Amino acid sequence: MLDIGCGSGRLAGILEDYDDYLGIDLSEELLKIAMKKFPSQRFMHGDMRDLSMISSTTFDTIFFIASLHHVLDEKEQGGILSHTRDLLNPNGRIVLLNWNLKSEKNRARYSGNQISENVLDIPFAGHSRHYYAFDLEILDALFSQTGLRIKKNIVSQTADNFIGILEK
Question: pLDDT, tens digit, for every residue of 74-127?
């Protein structure tokens, strides 16, 4: 399984008993934390916009856990998902979790942080980061471009996240 945007390895900890895990992240600092916390798992430095370093590998499951919202350009988002489709085994799936930055709670929390219609500037770890604010309609349109079957595109019970499952 492939964890794109693995950060400090939260998912790696949950999947620690699986020996086919590979986590990829752009942040070398977060990867160092992940490697220290989960030395039995494999991690690699890389950018989700260019996964050529693993293009000859295929996976049963590819995860994007709170990572795709860091890509602000909609065409790039579509390109990333289309490329990861090619990394799936037959009957493979992509599982996505994206923050619901447009929820009532988050709209109140981040009012005034809007840069454009779907981009927010949010303070994080002492600096600010830009995040793409998805909604179900945007995700449905994005998922429809991939050539994959949309198994789920829902809001979590707490309304804090969007959960998407795409199948080959």
Answer: 999 999 999 999 999 999 999 999 999 999 998 888 888 889 999 999 987 788
pTM over 0.70: yes
The enclosing H or E element of 7 equals none
Strand pairing class (149-155; 161-167): antiparallel
Collapse the DSSP code of 50 into the 3-class scheme (helix H, G, I; strand E, B; otherwise coil) and give the result: strand
Which position has the token pair 């070398």?
28
- Domain 47-101+133-167 indexed as CATH 3.40.50.150: yes
DSSP conformation letters of 63-110: EEES-GGG---HHHHHHHHHHHHTTEEEEEEEEEEEE-TTSHHHHHHT
pLDDT in tens, 7-20: 999 999 999 888 89
Tokens linked to 62: 């590819």
